Amino acid sequence: MSAASFPRAAADAAYRAVLAGMWIAARDLSPARRRLARTGLIATGIGVEYAKSPSSFREMFDQKEPQPDEPQEFKPDKRQSATLAIGIGLAVTTMIARRRLEKRWMKQLEHSGHRHPAGALALRMVPVEFGIQLLLRAADRLKPTPDDESRALPSRDGT
What we know:
- The chain is 70% helix and 0% strand.
- α1 (5-25) runs antiparallel to α5 (117-142), α2 crosses α3 (54-61) and α4 packs antiparallel against α5 (117-142).
- The radius of gyration is 20 Å and the shape is globular.
- By secondary structure, it is mainly alpha-helical.
């Protein structure tokens, strides 16, 4: 990651970690308050994502359907497929590991008779979530893209 992009990735990871911690902490609330808190978190997340990049947010909803006369070209590349498989594997592995750790810590907190186990779990999970999100941002930053010459995959003819 370049020096300019690391602070942005760290801030994004921190923001996502705090949202995840708040989502977990909402478990201590009554069902109605929990739903209200989580709805507020979703609305906040959408607002922050829009504030970060309004143009890309608009593009997400203004996508054009491909015309039938446009050629649909798909050439699977082994390296791109491997990168995609590694990315999916990393995401699934982190999701499973996060959930196992969450269950284990929650069980320990409940067994020890903690007054607010979900709040304590949220405080424990925020640094873990921050690390995971930062790792995923770094992995996303390293994947090859066609418009970035420094990370683009070479073509089959060697250029």
